Amino acid sequence: MLSRPFTIVVSGKGGTGKTTLCSLLVRSFIDIGEKPVLAVDADPNANLHEALGVTVSETLGSMREEAFTRRIPPGMNRHDYVRFRFRQALVEAEGFDLVAMGRPEGSGCYCFANDLLSECMTELEREYRFIVIDTEAGMEHISRGTIGKPDMLLIVSDPGARGLRTISRIREIATLLGLEPAKIHIVFNKYKSGTAPVDIGNEIPIAILPDDYSVEAADLAATPVSQVPLNSPARMVVRELAEKIRSLAKEHTGA
Ligand SMILES: Nc1ncnc2c1ncn2[C@@H]1O[C@H](COP(=O)(O)OP(=O)(O)OP(=O)(O)O)[C@@H](O)[C@H]1O
Ligand SMILES: [Mg+2]
Hints:
Rossmann fold, eight-stranded mixed β-sheet, 41% helix, globular
């Protein structure tokens, strides 16, 4: 039993497979008995729920706008009301819950709202064994420091030069912001037979997901990618990755 949740942030260039990896990782943690998992969609263009086959009716962003402008039901203070709405925004599914962050705030002052929301988030996080955070493409989340200091940062890249160059940029910013290099790992995705000749240092990827027809087929059929067959190559690799992360998490947090 982990003494606290182990948080994994997934970042990388656009379209490299962050959401695919997150959903397969959530699925794999459940498959190996590491549940419940909290899936956090930190991409304003939220689609992790689709990859996991659940529906999101409200994001924390839209809830924040409303919970602070609307009249509170009688008998509740704003604090209780936000807590209540926060729980409503949480999607509960078999083995995992999901929360979508939605759009960043507008121009008003949201300090009070954000303080309350992070309080709700901290309370909620205690309930999980693993937290998997999908981010928007690029370096926004990392450079703004909004993801805090995760236990593990996975940087996903396809074999192309632009994806590989993004690895170095993300790694540099994350390290500058104080994340220990040992917590940063590379994942290759859509791998066929090699990568572009771009220097990414001598780190060996923690996982290499092959270009997998079943992943592509799930997208074409508009079915959740997390439900690709158990023996599909990408799913099998991610399961191994989940096992690896479980071992690291035990070392890290003290099993
Ligand atoms: N291993 C794979 N094999 C085949 N296709 C894949 C694989 N991984 C991802 N894809 C496909 O690549 C596309 C992009 O994947 P995904 O949405 O996961 O990327 P992303 O990094 O989250 O994108 P964005 O930056 O837009 O959030 C999708 O069509 C997905 O089906
Ligand atoms: Mg995505």
